[in-house]
């Protein structure tokens, strides 16, 4: 029986399967106690091996004491790992030999790496803020530059006294509009407006008052043109207006309305009222007359309008004279 008891204990220690208690030793109480102890020990070790560190150690003695110590250390180690995961890199392990050294080294390296990352993050944040400030300053400078550029462009393209296009800019826009009219097939009309006896206004009222009259006339011209006409100062007391896309009848109606509004809107000053009239020469160009892309052609249209203006003055001023660009036939309107 002794052999069977030893064989049973050996199976309890080495066999993966739990052996049956030998029937011939059923009355051996001490063997039952050893059997139960070893079975409980196997179950406890199996729980620890599969990760159940909360499994109760229900045995006593030196082996049970060592198991409880190991269980407590492993549970504390688990808690320390959780603290490290939460960012506490002060945790150190002072048991488990080489594992403790490796764990402590790992935590130290993590702490150093995280500290380095935080320093780099701070440097990156400062650099980002500096870049943001620099970009804002450059954008502000660029906005100022664009504003200045727009102001210079406006000054270069417009008459400083009246604010309408200067002669050069009017020529550029008018040539482009004639080109568009030729491509699209619609007529264009060009009017030159001259203030009658403007020299007398300068001589009697002064040049500063004359400048005010020019601004007043400009305002009247703008308010009279409701069809998108292009306005420019041709020189001195002469203005030039391009009216694209309108037939001759409509154009004459608009331009003559302008003439009447000038006559009906005297300029009031602190010393009195200045009554003004204008003479207008109008050149009308049909799209089939072609050659609109040629600047020589455009200058010829100016010449036609100028001839019409001369005819208006010859007719006694304060009137509109229309010339077809090719026919060059006088058509006086509004002589009063």
UniProtKB/TrEMBL annotation:
Keyword set includes Protease: no
SMART domains, A to Z: GGDEF
Domain GGDEF, chain residue ranges per copy: 186-325
Domain HAMP residues, every copy: 68-115
Gene Ontology MF terms in the entry: diguanylate cyclase activity
GO biological process: cell adhesion involved in single-species biofilm formation; negative regulation of bacterial-type flagellum-dependent cell motility; signal transduction
EC number of this enzyme: 2.7.7.65
Domain of life of the organism encoding this protein: Bacteria
Record's GO cellular component terms: plasma membrane
Enzyme class (EC, first level): transferase
Keyword Coiled coil listed: yes
Protein keywords: Coiled coil
Protein name as catalogued: diguanylate cyclase
Source lineage: Bacteria, Pseudomonadati, Thermodesulfobacteriota, Desulfobulbia, Desulfobulbales
């Amino acid at each position: 029986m002794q052999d069977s008891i030893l064989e049973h204990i050996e199976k309890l220690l080495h066999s993966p399967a739990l052996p049956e208690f030998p029937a011939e030793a059923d009355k051996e109480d001490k063997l039952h106690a050893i059997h139960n102890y070893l079975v409980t020990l196997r179950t406890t070790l199996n729980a620890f091996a599969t990760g159940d560190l909360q499994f109760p150690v229900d045995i006593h003695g030196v082996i049970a004491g060592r198991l409880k110590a190991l269980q407590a250390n492993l549970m504390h180690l688990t808690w320390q790992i959780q603290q490290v995961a939460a960012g506490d890199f002060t945790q150190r392990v002072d048991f488990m030999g080489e594992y403790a050294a490796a764990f402590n080294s790992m935590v130290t390296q993590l702490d150093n790496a995280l500290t380095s990352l935080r320093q780099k993050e701070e440097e990156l944040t400062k650099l980002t803020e500096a870049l943001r400030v620099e970009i804002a300053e450059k954008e502000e400078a660029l906005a100022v530059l664009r504003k200045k550029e727009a102001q210079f462009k406006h000054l270069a393209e417009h008459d400083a006294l009246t604010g309408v296009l200067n002669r050069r800019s009017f020529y550029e826009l008018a040539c482009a509009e004639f080109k568009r009219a030729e491509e699209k097939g619609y007529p264009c009309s060009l009017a030159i407006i001259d203030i009658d006896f403007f020299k007398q206004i300068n001589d009697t009222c002064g040049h500063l008052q004359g400048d005010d009259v020019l601004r007043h006339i400009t305002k009247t011209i703008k308010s009279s043109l409701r069809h998108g006409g292009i306005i420019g100062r041709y020189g001195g007391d002469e203005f030039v207006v391009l009216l694209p896309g309108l037939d001759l009848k409509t154009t004459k109606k608009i331009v003559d309305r302008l003439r009447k509004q000038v006559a009906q809107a005297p300029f009031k000053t602190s010393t009195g009222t200045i009554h003004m009239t204008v003479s207008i020469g109008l050149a009308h160009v049909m799209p089939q007359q072609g050659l609109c892309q040629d600047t020589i052609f455009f200058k010829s249209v100016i010449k036609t309008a100028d001839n019409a203006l001369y005819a208006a003055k010859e007719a006694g001023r304060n009137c509109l004279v229309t010339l077809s660009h090719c026919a060059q036939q006088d058509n006086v309107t509004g002589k009063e």
